[in-house]
Fold each of these.
Amino acid sequence: MCLILAAWHAHPDYPLVVAANRDEHFARPTAAAQWWEDEPKILAGRDLAALGTWLGITRDGRFAALTNYRNPALRRAQAPSRGLLVRDALAGIAPTLKVLGHVASVAQHYADFNLLVSDGRSLGIHESAARRTRRLAPGIHALSNHLLDTPWPKVEVARDRFRAALEGSLADDDFLALLRDDAPAPDDRLPSTGVSLEWERLLSPVFVRAPGYGTRSSTLLTVRRDGAARLREWTWNEDAELAGDITHAFRVTLPPGDGDGSAD
């Protein structure tokens, strides 16, 4: 997952709204979002190479999503799949900060990552490159392949359009339009992450198109205060054409109370 926009208790009717793009090599086998047979409470896409995932939600209101931290110098070829961290966060029952505390204790075994976790009551993040775990306040949070809210051009553009979509009718087309934005950033605003200038350009749009690599799927997740939830996933082929469109409407059991989600 390479771009996650999350509104946490930032909308009067929806405590959680997420719009996200997953960027990955097209050769890596993947299953579309579905309820898992081996973990029936989990709804998520699946990486069929390592059996983890990049984003998912459960029937008891748990949410988790991950982005890789881009720095080729820190690449670890033999490290376990970071998608297993998302799977384990969804499969568990521990509160947010306890989950992230455990993740922090094992993070050194993985290539660097950012992991968002919610138990339905609070939202938190572990940023392994910064060795930092924290609870997040209600609001709009944006995450790409650096630390949370790093002002990369794609992050700033997508966050502004995400906020506008939240202030509107929450139409799928508005969120999809921002996730399909393939305009590159100007060279003078490109980050320097250790890849070539050509790849900085290719990776700079919200929707990535590169040789053998790019945005494989876009996800919109909404959870309403009454527990009504909906996950829509669009999948894309190597030509950036629509290859699949699936919607899951379901109910989650939200924690009691009507607070701002800041309690753990």
Amino acid sequence: MKKITLVLTLLAFTFSFAQTPEGTWKLTPQAGALAVGPTQGSAGWWQNSAGDVTTRACLFDDQYVFNSDGSFQNVLGTDTWLETSQGVATEGCGTPVAPHNGSAATWTYDSTANTIVLNGTGAFLGLAKVFNGGELSAAGTTPPASITYTVTSISSTNMTIDIAISGGWWRFLFTKEVAGLNDNVFNAVKMFPNPAKDVVQFSKHSNEPLDIQIFDMLGKSLIAHKNVQSAVNTSSLRTGVYVVQMTLGTKATTKKLVVH
């Protein structure tokens, strides 16, 4: 009887800490974080490259926030990845457009069915254009009021999401932001001022060498410096938005830089 009681207690403890998507997530900054193919989990048609993490930094820094009160937010910042179906001439980074601009939404998670349902026109995971059974293909097309995603795997740090479209499947890989879990480059390096004009300053709390590379929004490298000690001259950059890749030892990350 004592053994049975112990087993039931352990089971109750396990289920009380069952993993849910509650928290803040970002697309995993690696090749294959976005992939589409003819079958679930396949990347036979397309997947992002490692370089796309830089050229599409406006997408990889977007946050997908599952709040504890059941509300959901797409936190897109000043720019995100836009598709032609959203009214732009060519796909690329730009100011978020309605309804894919962080409009109010809610979320529900079914751990038995392994599904996440987002309720709210414009709410999405991964790519704004993807919905159950298809993709938005024309400007002005109204997205559905609700989207259901398959949760293929979920842990305290990583989540794999699949969704079926017409004749194929999209897959999105996410990493959870956990405060204090990692001493990452965002915490180890400070970049200022931002917006900047002629000079950008960098400070670091590490003895590891800091390498800096600045790209335009098309992915062209414009400035590159190794073992940066403090300042980088940016007077050659025109007014606009750029991507700064910072490598500290073996760690790397990107930040957006506004030049005026």
Amino acid sequence: MKTTLLTPSPTDTVYTRLREWYRQIPGRLVLQAERSQLDALLPSLAGNRIVQIGCTGESALLTCSQVPHRIVLDAGVNAPDVGPDLYARADALPFDTESVDVLVLPHTLEFECDPHGVLREVNRVLAPEGHLVIIGFNPWGLWGLWRMFRKRRGEPPWCGCFLGLSRLYDWLSLLDLRVVHTRYFFFRPPLQREALMRTLAFLEVPGGRWWLPISGLYLVVAQKRVLAMTPIRLRWPEVYPLVPNLCWVEPAASEVKHGQ
């Protein structure tokens, strides 16, 4: 049974249009690439609960995970064709503190008003040694150049705030989230002709070797660090024993009359 925890907001229009983008070219090919990346990664991340925050048109991104409890949370409106398990705000997650072992954010930070606030909330619910998986659009390269000309039209995904990796790394470091893996992928330009996009698929092989900074998308895996508590033994000051039978010795007369 689905639980509704959110009422529609102005941001819902962006999420709805983003889902439409994923159903078309190049969004459909991007979704395939993202699913391929997660299929190779998620089986290695263990735990009891995995949560995907944000829907990309379908809830199939967690299917390859070995974690028994899988939850898809949508921050948009209640759409019957999407099929999430929960509807809630990304910066106010309905989970207990340190109760989620793996969190997946597919382009969640790009379309939230306060992405750093979302990361703080994610850090709250993430269990110690848990993993955070972030998929984002690279603001550099062809996709960043495309966004410069399409941003003013207000069309997703170009209207989103593409986060550079250096900025994302700084945010994660402030929250004691250690980056353990970064992967660049999808090196084709965002063209809308499916035949041409499939013809350019050969760019993925050399792109994964030499053109890393100009990829269309990136995947970052971070782990929540737990500071080890090392007990410190107190060193008590040394106590010198009293000298037994200690008596006061009067100074000699010659010392008293010294200088006379």
